[in-house]
Amino acid sequence: MLRSRIRLTPEKLVTNHRRFLILPCMIQVCRLAKRFGGLTAVDGIDFEIPPGQTFGLLGPNGAGKTTTIHMLVGLLRPDGGEICIQGDSDPTRPAVRQHMGVAPQALSLYEDLTATENLAFFARLYGLRGRRLRERVAIALRRAGLFERRRDRVKTFSGGMKRRLHLACALVHEPSVLLLDEPTIGVDPQARHHILADIEALKQEGCTILFTTHYMEEAQRLCDRVAIMDHGRILVMDTVPNILAQHGGRAVVRAELDHPPTDPDSLPGHVEGDSVIVETDRPFEAVKQLAAAGVSIRNLSLHQPDLETVFLKLTGRRLRD
Ligand SMILES: Nc1ncnc2c1ncn2[C@@H]1O[C@H](COP(=O)(O)OP(=O)(O)OP(=O)(O)O)[C@@H](O)[C@H]1O
Ligand SMILES: [Mg+2]
Question: Ligand 1 atom 12: the closest Cα is on which residue?
Fold first, then answer.
């Protein structure tokens, strides 16, 4: 159905709606939409991911991230728009799926099987057999830091270990495109660090990665480009530095003073109680000015704009409630 509306040429992909100019892209989405009854979960979004790039879909609960991933993997049929993965508009085709690794938001592991058995099961689904299967399973176990626990049943694993195995199952067949839906949800800081380092390594190896998250610091650390989603729409999409430069606003220096200032007009910012607050592009200048004004500072903090600030500015709400 969708395939008939997309025509590939060596130079560019042309669709009924628009031209994708950066090519070849691993993932392209054009005016993608999904409704559930009266609710528009995904409302005509566009994005493209060139090979080897990491793209983050960032948004609060119910933004439409998982629905987007489900359409990309063919679990949900779009109500509108087009999807193109490695030049193919049908993500359910085995040839497309062969190159894709998917780690859904909900853990999908067999609790009564061991780590090795889980990995071997997923590897077999992708057609791996014999020596190659054993090699890939061993690599995935080492990568997940679970080699020593490979013979243990998953039900004896901690939440972080399960999440690491869940990611390993998505990689076992060595896909070139990875779709990771909240890969670090519900894990402790150590497991999160492990998973993020894993994603970084995959990126270095040339994988094209789409991942969703509520955690703006993950997006800032990993992503070449980020799209901030809310109510099914993309509010802003760019590199993190560009988004911060355009929408982040200025840094905020807050100096708590030992005593309320006697001459507030001589200070660089405005006074709230015994604190001076300076919004500035040059926070270190502001600190120098405060020091030169001779005030006695009890505590000093600097808040640089981040993606959370951007989301707050764009929506009036926080990403995480
Ligand atoms: N199968 C479904 N039937 C009805 N509504 C659905 C269905 N799946 C998702 N929705 C609704 O679509 C909206 C988007 O949901 P989605 O799961 O895509 O959000 P999300 O961004 O992944 O959120 P979270 O961060 O909580 O995982 C929500 O309002 C959700 O309730
Ligand atoms: Mg989700």
Answer: 41
